[in-house]
Design the sequence.
């Protein structure tokens, strides 16, 4: 059997899971309003049909004051519990199991009503919390237990108590956020009283066999977080209080160490789970940056954990488990850990979805229906917009020909995967390559097409992408576009000036300065140390050695990188800083000559001495073929323009892939 450990059953309390794959909790936005329950039911049922062992919902607050944001998800009344029947029934029909996560946001609550152990504001939310009274703490511990009991009533198979990622329970545990002097604070052991009471009271209400999962932070990665000794003490206490399983988490949301981004090496944190396993008797679940069945299997085979939690990988591919079990791992749409459509959306108050799978959380809306008669469709351009369109049309039963003038599929995405920390992007192209084969798309590489070649098709989709914008600067012919550098056509010198500091300028600067690093070096660069020696797992950072001296320049006076992703931009900006990249804003480009790049900043002339000047000044659409087809009378209703060829400005893969899918879904049947 493929993945024998991962696919073997596992029993927790009175629940036997069909395999060891846990879909970890992730707030999608579908939890917040009862009218989204049908969408939520289909979202989880799709994953249950896909073979997931246990699904854990996004967090539900036990009280109003624990909301993540105004009117966010809550489980505190019988009416709410009854509404959840539709969700639990849908999962059970698919022979899956589902747990409800109980989460109190504490000072992370994006509401003026938020409360916390002490009135200390978090660095990532604008609202200062009010300090809970002794009675309120006691009532909140009981509210957690009642919420768990309601979950049981709603048909959930288990509950998870959220004690990680910096939410209320963490805020009680750490001295940095708890300066109380009553029985809920004072010493490390007294700070543990709150989670221990929650687990004890939950166990009392749900009975002896109902699985109670405790999600626990093994590394806080913040100043004055828990020490390792305290972490072990807490684990033993929650075990004694009645927890059935510990699901391990890493880092508070306010931590300034990336824990799940693409640049984090796969399974980078499992050493913490392995260490805790030696201390406790209840089973443990490993999590964070585990995105393939192979990595998950290895964790279990090596005895690091009993179960493996993956959230984003199951957003990316609901069929992950079935594909792994059927020897079809090469068909898995792998999560590339970009955060762009999942966590970024959650933090921007939008419904989560997935960059590589736009149907995630839109299962009832983006439905692929077969065409009544197979039509012939030509797609021109095999970047991700074209690939998404080609595979989606083919899934509907169209006979698709995909034309690409280059040697390989992938377009801008193939360039992006050269960036350190974006290597996972190669998985998306592997996925599309396999889908093209499976759906028998005819792929014609190294093929430039003319309008005459396309006239006979029933539908034509132009996805011809973009070319780098070449700005009008004297001496620009001495500069090179980023595409030539990332494709290996031009090898830059040791001192480099980069024109344009958008997403690509930042990426190219990271690429230019990067040197290979091991996992230990990566941890040291981010200041992660042994939690047994360094409280919270933080120690002074080791400097990074930069491969080149880089100057990153833009015309705007605004800080560089402010438009990067909400949950990833800070990490990219940090890498630029660690690598000593000089950031120059408010520049006027004067000339590029044999000495380098001449600019004016604040009316002062400057020379950036550079061996190479790289242009990252955005892109322009390539749409000549589209215009020609229209001019030659190809019916406008059958001609579609998508991706960068449609709109180059602020194009990203998220929009391109979704547009490809939507275009195919909107295609009409042949008359
Ligand atoms: P971009 O984000 O639009 O940035 C273009 C940069 O070029 C800007 O800094 C702009 O700044 C400058 N520029 C524009 N016109 C110029 C001109 N005529 N002369 C000189 N400079 C000019 O485009 P991009 O960097 O090519 O990225 C393309 C897309 O991919 C974007 O949507 C981006 O968000 C996405 N992407 C995102 C990431 C990420 O989130 N990590 C990474 C890569 C790409 P000034 O006008 O101030 O000079
Ligand atoms: Fe993974 Fe990116 Fe999809 Fe989120 S949006 S699930 S990080 S691929």
Sequence:
């Amino acid at each position: 059997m493929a993945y024998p450990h991962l696919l073997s059953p596992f029993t927790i309390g009175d629940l036997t899971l069909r395999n060891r794959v846990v879909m970890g909790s992730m707030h999608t936005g579908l939890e917040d309003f009862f009218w989204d329950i049908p969408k939520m039911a289909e979202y989880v049922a799709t994953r249950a049909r896909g073979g997931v062992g246990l699904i854990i919902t996004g967090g539900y607050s036990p009280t109003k004051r624990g909301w993540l944001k105004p009117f966010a998800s809550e489980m505190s009344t019988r009416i709410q519990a009854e509404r959840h029947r539709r969700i639990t029934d849908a999962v059970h029909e698919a022979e899956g199991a589902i747990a409800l996560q109980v989460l109190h946001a504490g000072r992370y609550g994006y509401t003026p009503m938020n409360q916390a152990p002490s009135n200390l504001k978090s660095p990532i939310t604008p609202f200062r919390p009010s300090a809970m009274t002794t009675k309120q703490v006691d009532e909140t511990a009981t509210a957690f237990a009642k919420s768990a009991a309601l979950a049981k009533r709603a048909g959930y198979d288990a509950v998870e108590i959220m004690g990680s990622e910096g939410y209320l329970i963490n805020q009680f545990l750490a001295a940095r956020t708890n300066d109380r002097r009553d029985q809920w604070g004072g010493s490390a052991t007294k700070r543990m009283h709150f989670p221990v009471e929650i687990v004890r009271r939950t166990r009392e209400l749900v009975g002896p066999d109902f699985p109670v999962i405790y999600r626990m932070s093994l590394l806080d990665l913040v100043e004055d977080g828990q020490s390792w000794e305290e972490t072990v003490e807490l684990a033993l206490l929650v075990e004694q209080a009645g927890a059935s399983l510990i699901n391990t988490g890493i880092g508070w949301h306010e931590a300034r160490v990336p824990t799940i981004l693409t640049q984090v090496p796969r399974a980078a944190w499992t050493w913490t789970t392995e260490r805790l396993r030696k201390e406790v008797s209840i089973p443990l679940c490993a999590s964070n940056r585990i995105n393939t069945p192979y990595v998950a299997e290895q964790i279990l085979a090596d005895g690091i954990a009993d179960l493996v939690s993956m959230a984003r990988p199951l957003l990316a591919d609901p069929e992950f488990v079935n594909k792994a079990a059927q020897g079809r791992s090469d068909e898995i749409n792998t999560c590339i850990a970009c955060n762009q459509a999942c966590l970024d959306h959650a933090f921007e108050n939008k419904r989560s979805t997935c960059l590589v799978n736009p149907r995630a959380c839109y299962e009832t809306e983006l439905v692929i229906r077969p065409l009544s008669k197979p039509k012939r469709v030509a797609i021109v351009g095999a970047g991700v917009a074209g690939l998404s369109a080609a595979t989606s049309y083919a899934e509907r039963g169209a006979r698709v020909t995909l034309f690409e003038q280059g040697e390989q599929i992938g377009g801008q995405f193939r360039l992006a995967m050269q960036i350190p920390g974006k290597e996972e992007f190669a998985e998306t192209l592997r996925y599309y390559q396999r889908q093209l084969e499976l759906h028998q798309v005819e792929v014609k590489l190294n093929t430039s097409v003319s309008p005459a070649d396309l006239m006979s098709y029933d539908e034509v989709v132009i996805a011809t992408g973009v070319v780098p914008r070449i700005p009008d600067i004297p001496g620009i012919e001495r500069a090179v576009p980023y595409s030539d550098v990332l494709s290996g056509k031009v090898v830059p010198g040791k001192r480099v000036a980069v024109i344009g500091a958008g997403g690509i300028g930042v990426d190219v600067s990271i690429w230019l300065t990067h040197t290979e690093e091991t996992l230990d070096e990566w941890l040291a660069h981010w200041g992660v140390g042994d939690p047994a020696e360094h409280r919270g797992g933080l120690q002074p950072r080791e400097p990074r050695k930069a491969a080149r001296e880089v100057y990153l320049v833009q015309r705007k006076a605004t800080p560089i990188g402010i438009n990067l992703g909400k949950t990833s931009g800070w990490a990219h900006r940090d890498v630029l800083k660690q690598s000593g990249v000089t950031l120059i804003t408010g520049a006027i480009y004067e000339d590029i000559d044999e000495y380098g790049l001449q600019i004016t900043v604040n009316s002062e002339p400057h020379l950036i001495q550079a061996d190479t000047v790289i242009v990252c000044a955005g892109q322009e659409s390539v749409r000549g073929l589209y215009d020609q087809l229209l001019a030659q009378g190809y019916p406008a209703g059958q001609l579609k323009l998508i991706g960068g060829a449609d709109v180059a400005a602020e194009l990203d893969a998220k929009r391109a892939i979704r547009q490809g899918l939507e275009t195919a879904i909107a295609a009409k049947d042949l008359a």
Observations:
- The two ends are 48 Å apart (CA to CA).
- The mean pLDDT is 96.
- Residues 10-15+59-306 form a domain with the TIM Barrel fold (CATH 3.20.20.70).
